[in-house]
Amino acid sequence: MIANIEDVARLAGVARSTVSNVINRPGIVAEATRKRVTDAMEMLGYVPNESARVLAGGLGRFIGMVVHDASNPFFGRIARAVEDIALERDYVVTLTSTGAEAAREDNALRLLMRQRAQGVLLTTAALRATAVASLRKIGTRVVLLDSPGGDDECSVSVDDVEGGRLAGRHFLECGYTRIAFAGRPQRTTQHGDRLTGLREALAEDGRRPGLHVQKLTVAGDDVASGRQAAATIAAGDLSTPLAVLCGNDLIAMGLMFGLQELGVRVPDQVAICGYDDIDLAQYLAIPLTTVRQPMDAMGRAAFELLLDEVTSKEHTHLGKQFVPELVVRRSTAPI
Amino acid sequence: MIANIEDVARLAGVARSTVSNVINRPGIVAEATRKRVTDAMEMLGYVPNESARVLAGGLGRFIGMVVHDASNPFFGRIARAVEDIALERDYVVTLTSTGAEAAREDNALRLLMRQRAQGVLLTTAALRATAVASLRKIGTRVVLLDSPGGDDECSVSVDDVEGGRLAGRHFLECGYTRIAFAGRPQRTTQHGDRLTGLREALAEDGRRPGLHVQKLTVAGDDVASGRQAAATIAAGDLSTPLAVLCGNDLIAMGLMFGLQELGVRVPDQVAICGYDDIDLAQYLAIPLTTVRQPMDAMGRAAFELLLDEVTSKEHTHLGKQFVPELVVRRSTAPI
DNA sequence: CGCCACCTCTGGAGCGCTCCAAAGCAGCAT
DNA sequence: ATGCTGCTTTGGAGCGCTCCAGAGGTGGCG
Asked: Which of A11, A78, B244, B289 has the fewest Cβ atoms surrounding its Cβ within 10 A?
């Protein structure tokens, strides 16, 4: 029914190996033969069977990408960048969201292992060394995404402490004396680092030693969580302007929407700084000041690292760290 | 290096076939034997090689999903639903965005064919019959997503004409006499249908025959496009309230943000109705009235349809059409 | 005690492909 | 002519697994 390499060979009057050569090393096949083979392939609508190729020892061309939540624009954008570059290289990438649940993550990795994925770009809340170890055991390479990682694997991340510092300095320059952080300092190291950086910036500031950060812990990474934080803030003291750094842009957006609805003025009464610089940030009614992470570059770098680990003989693990950048828009302003 | 079924068999002291049975038909293997085999698998860290399974004729467990843009929350949500149910059934799904470019779509499909994907959930701007035909030729099933489709394939869609009608009736009930549509009526049938429905609702209305829809054609499906439309509207006549149905929620959000920034009051001066009901819609400062598409149900239905086509002997193609639902929030209000 | 049915388990064939060693075949210098 | 070199092409082995027909074993029953 469906044509295989044998059929092509027969029609073209050559051996299977020659067809294989046309596919994989067209250079070594004589012009005339190659033409005959490609014609035959065309005629039969032949499509190589990837399973057979992989099984026969050719390198597979397929990687997995496992993230918390693909619907978060931050991951979505990175995924898009990875996919773009992967497609260029003829790699297929499968994207899986885990919702940061260990069980789902295990399941996704198990499936990827069965498929003998060449590699995995992994965003994992708690890096479970066992999972990574079993991945590596069957030859699947791992690059950690959005977290620093150890010496045993490549990783791509952003200097989140510096990011927090940037926001903190900006707040101080604007003249804010009340500063808060809305995020999940406990669960993810990312938010924790951002908070640390924010505190460092305040500490570095000679003018106002002892300036403290008010912590607003939110339930999730999403807009809904940010919106809940708005109620807390609106209920509190608004006589002095407050500046809030959010764990990410979604939280910041939720916070902003919530405050607007409650009649709190942004940035006059509450200034907001997000984190990530997702696409949406610039289009809001009050465009969002935020700390930009270079998502495209991160995605590309992660793929390149993985590809190198997969293909190069002498690969050395590399922890690539990007530097964030403050993007000032209208959700913050000098007092 | 990496354990295979042979190694497991040897360690457990059984034949390869028995190990295979333990994996695929555990019921027929005696309790004691099964235990020995699973222990051996555990001990060796054995993971079945999917390529070999597929090659040997076992059914593969992997489908592709090809959409315009996975970062659009509408598709993102559907993808998530598909993935959830697929994971339950031990299927892997690979998500690819095409940016509605034919070349990218072809490339993605080609890759999927090589991998002998069991099936593909396809959102295609212009259904190119040839692509679908070659997919089917190698046995890859296709379910059309978000477009009606013909008799030759299953499809999942929403009655967009009805959706437009719902919005239109709502506008009339609120008392609007000036009505506009912001979208891409020419390119995608979805937006076209929504506009048609909107017009039908006005036509059905006995009170004001001849009421017309002003067409605001936008460049894309995204927030930026909606924001551009805001400038056009703000520059026009605002003395009479205007109601705008947008091609999707992103456009609606962009429009709303743009109007807010320009000082136009929503809904007093301009009422906005979106389409899709993405998660964000309810969280905006002015929560968005919108026409809800049942994204989770659509994703699930698409997968079920595909699974049936893949596994069931006597499958009949089915065009499943969902009914949209109007969700009234604060971006529209009685005049 | 023998036969049969039933339950388990087994060996071999084969899926479609790649890789490898080696064969075939010029063309050229000797 | 003969031998050699370099370019093409070839057949066979094998990747890890599933499927199938049938081999062994066990117990029931006449």
From this structure: A11
Average pLDDT of the residues in B48-70: 87
DSSP assignment string, B182-228: EE-TTT-HHHHHHHHHHHHHHHH-SSSTT--EEEEE-SSSSHHHHHH
Give this prediction's pTM: 0.90
Contact B65, B34 (CB under 8 A): no
Which residues of chain A does B54 touch, with a Cβ-Cβ cutoff of 8 Å?
A: 51
Reply yes or no on whether the pLDDT at B149 is more than 80. Answer: no
Nearest nt by C1' to A21 Cα? C18
Between CA B146 and CA B126 the distance in angstroms is 12
Contact B161, B200 (CB under 8 A): yes
3-state secondary structure of B292: strand
Residue in A92, A108, A280 nearest the CB of B94 = A92
**Contact across the interface for A2 and B137, Cβ inside 8 Å:** yes
Distance, Å, A14 CA → D1 C1': 32
Neighbour-count burial of B311, counting CB atoms closer than 10 A to its CB (0-12 exposed, 13-18 middle, 19+ buried): exposed
Q: What is the mean pLDDT of residues B322-335?
A: 97
Share of chain B above pLDDT 70, in %: 98
Phi, then psi, of B137 in degrees rounded to 5: -60, -40
* Facing B94 at nearest CB: one of A47, A94, A104: A94
How far CA A208 is from CA of A102, A141, A211, in Å, comes to 43, 48, 6
- Per-residue pLDDT of A94-111, as tens digits, reads 888 888 788 888 888 888
Q: Does strand D come within 7 Å of the CB of B217?
A: no
A136, containing H or E segment? helix A129-137
User: Which CA distances in Å does B190 have to A46, A53, B25, B104, B159?
Assistant: 35, 40, 45, 21, 9
Closest residue to C13 (CA, C1′): B56
pLDDT value, residue B90:
82
- What the block records as the tokens of A171 is 């707040």
